[in-house]
Design goal:
434 residues; mainly alpha
Length: 434
């Protein structure tokens, strides 16, 4: 019996070590991706005119929105439906997901080109430079999601490293060569780097885009993507609208909120990594007990909550001189909204465990319903807060929304576990019950 206990203990320690390595590589990858975005933005800002950087910002916002929407339609359904598939089923699904990425990327490129012609000027040129590469950009992100689904985040880090080297190295070389149109070259390198990283990613995956059957693959996952897609548009739309509303009553307030978001960037990196990791772990064990899933959700929320609480605690006591060194004149505004923004980040981190568990279980209709509540709360609270208190009111609206939603995530997960709720829709998920 003691030998059996010892064997079980060794097996548990090995699983724990493997899980620790996966979450570590997931955090590293998310951090690398965020750092590449930040460095490119900083380099462009320091080397281009204010109007040119504005055009770059517009193009980058379009890129962020398209990428998030494509992940909701392709990457997340792949992750949820194929995490527990056999290797052959996974490769087949990944190939069709890559094929869907080509189709969606081509549509995005066409729409962006039309918008660029309508806008014209520097922003139009920036959109054309970016839009031509949308197929590669969406393919690269789909490769990353495939690696997370396969539980090989180290490979996602590898292709993101290639991307970072191509983009940043190429841009510095362009500066040395005296290239004048910094925005166009930066966005062109952004897309070219994604193309190089995608080729490397497909080599590692040992599968390429399978165009035939890709539309059927998307249709078979419509029970997931229709909720995830609308959920993304709804939450992102309300958030962006809220920031724009602040600009109508307090122009400097927009900068204050953005500055606070920059300082809270590491919380997004860790939170996103935890969500990706947990969703995959839950999706790959469809027969796990309710007790196991409840413990996992609590462990993720608890660990993430402690880490985020420590970080935001440091931000809240950050000396003014340090804040001014980091953000310059925008520190005063950022400090005025720091408390509610930190509370919002902390509440969101505490809800990550049940949220990711629901996603992993395929219960996207449940997450959608809660996010509809989020949207309604945001609309009401942002309208009241901004009209009376400006940027501070907007920040408190975001914080109150996250705090109100926090118990809803845990209650909804408990209901799903107690009732043995099945995945949304009738279409079967690809699962290996062995």
């Amino acid at each position: 019996m003691s030998k059996q206990r010892s064997a079980r203990l060794r097996a548990a320690l090995l699983r724990g070590r493997q899980a620790s390595l996966r979450i570590s590589w997931t955090v590293i990858d998310q951090g690398l991706s965020a750092l590449t975005n930040l460095l490119l933005s900083v380099v462009v800002a320091r080397s281009a005119t204010a109007s040119a950087f504005g055009a770059f910002a517009v193009a980058f916002l379009v890129y962020s929105l398209v990428l998030g929407f494509s992940r909701a339609l392709i990457g997340q359904p792949l992750q949820i439906s194929s995490a527990s598939a056999t290797q052959e089923e996974f490769r087949n699904s990944a190939g069709h997901a890559l094929g869907a990425a080509v189709i969606l990327g081509s549509i995005a490129a066409l729409i962006t080109a039309v918008a660029a012609l309508a806008v014209g000027g520097q922003s139009g040129a920036a959109l054309i430079a970016l839009g031509l590469w949308f197929p590669a950009l969406i393919l690269q992100d789909t490769c990353r999601m495939a690696f997370f689904t396969e539980r090989t985040p180290k490979r996602a880090t590898a292709i993101d490293s290639v991307w970072a080297v191509v983009v940043l190295g190429g841009f510095l070389a362009a500066l040395a060569a005296g290239v004048t149109d910094r925005v166009v070259i930066a966005l062109t390198l952004w897309g070219f780097g994604a193309a190089v990283a995608t080729l490397y990613g497909m080599v590692l995956l040992r599968v390429g885009p399978r165009m035939r059957g890709s539309l059927r693959w998307m249709r078979d996952r419509l029970h997931l993507s229709r909720y995830l897609g609308v959920e993304y548009l709804l939450t992102m739309g309300i958030a962006q609208a809220g920031i724009l509303m602040v600009g109508f009553v307090d122009t400097a307030g927009v900068g204050a909120i953005r500055a606070a978001q920059v300082l809270l960037g590491p919380t997004n990196v860790i939170g996103t990594a935890a969500m990706v990791f947990t969703t995959t772990e839950v999706a790959r064990t469809p027969t796990a007990s309710a007790h196991h899933r409840s413990l996992l959700a609590a462990a993720v929320s608890g660990t993430l909550g402690v880490a985020i609480a420590a970080y935001v605690g440091v931000l809240l006591v950050l000396p003014g001189s340090w804040g001014e060194h980091l953000l310059g004149d925008t520190w005063t505004g950022a400090k005025s909204v720091m408390l509610p923004m930190c509370l919002a980040a902390l509440a969101a981190s505490l809800g990550a465990g049940p949220t990711a568990t629901l996603y992993g279980m395929g219960l996207v209709r449940a997450t959608f319903n809660i996010n509809v509540v989020r949207a309604a709360l945001n609309i009401v609270l942002l309208a009241i807060g901004i009209s009376i208190w400006g940027a501070s009111g907007a920040a408190w609206a975001l914080a109150i929304t996250e705090i109100v939603l926090l118990p809803l995530w845990f209650v909804r997960l408990r209901i799903a576990l107690q009732t043995g709720e099945r995945p949304t829709g009738d279409a079967p998920l690809e699962r290996n019950e062995i």
